[in-house]
Amino acid sequence: MLNQRDYTAVFEASPDAMLVVDAEGVIRDLNRRAVEMFGYGREEIEGSPVERLVPEASRGRHQLHRARYAEAPRPRPMGQGLELRALRKDGATIPVEISLSPSRLGSGQTHVICAVRDMTGWNRMRRLSGLMIAAAEQERKHLSRELHDEFLQSLVALKIRTKLLADEKDDGERERARERMAGEIADAIRGVKRMIRGLLPPELDRRGLASSITSALRDIEEVYGVTVHASLARVGGKVQEATALALYRIVQEAVMNAVRHAGVSEATVTLEAADGVVSATIRDEGRGFALPDLDALPGDDCIGLTGMRERAALAGGLLDIRTSPGMGTTVRASVPVASPEGERD
Questions:
Q1: What is the pLDDT of residue 214?
Q2: What is the pLDDT of residue 344?
Q3: Fold classification of 204-345 (topology level)
């Protein structure tokens, strides 16, 4: 049989924030996780109305819901599909799920036991899942266009040239046609290799981050006829493969965005390292754009931007995007160097 001390230990050990709220909506007790989640000291929040933890815009609606619940209290488990947010002491709001359970405590009065679960991690995983699906579909569309517009057309042209070559009687003209065909085949092979390099990242550990980025920028210049001004410093210290890959993909995505959407013929890429942080900055003087809400589920207009931010976050870093219509765009990714060992670059 559990005693009062045991019940208190269970209350304090709960992985969810736990609040005990009386019939008037006043917080009478809370556990350690609630103190951590909301940022208040225990003495600051005990005796306060529960609406103190509700965003100001939702407080009136919350009071009405609470009053209706008090008329017919019943258990309400988590996972009811409600989009709820809670307010921290620092003014930040967090997505939460809340379960309610009415209980008559030792005082004989009915209280509501509120379990509050921080859904930030879950929502992040949901965004990432949506991002991965959308990015895969976008990549399929891009590959389909590239295969159709470049390689299929080349193959059709080669088929026609092969037929013409078979009918050609002049030896000199036949040889010139054969040389043209050989050149077109070589161009197609180079195009396939570029596509493969774009899909499969280089061996970053062997080649180094700066060298790998240089190779990717060279491919972009060759395909799109743009100029990329690069200043790529050697990165001191051993950069983990995941960190290097994140920066490589961010640079690749940001430059491609500039080429495809900004209407520019040149861009600037800078790679630098200082105080244990590696930073990549991509700048263009193009048309710019209104920055969308990157916290929402990704749509076609922000898959690349959301992907860059998530890559930086997974590497323990940050992504900053500065842009506005007509003012160009600057993307800066900063991630920590993993360990002090030297990187071959």
A1: 92
A2: 40
A3: Heat Shock Protein 90 (3.30.565)
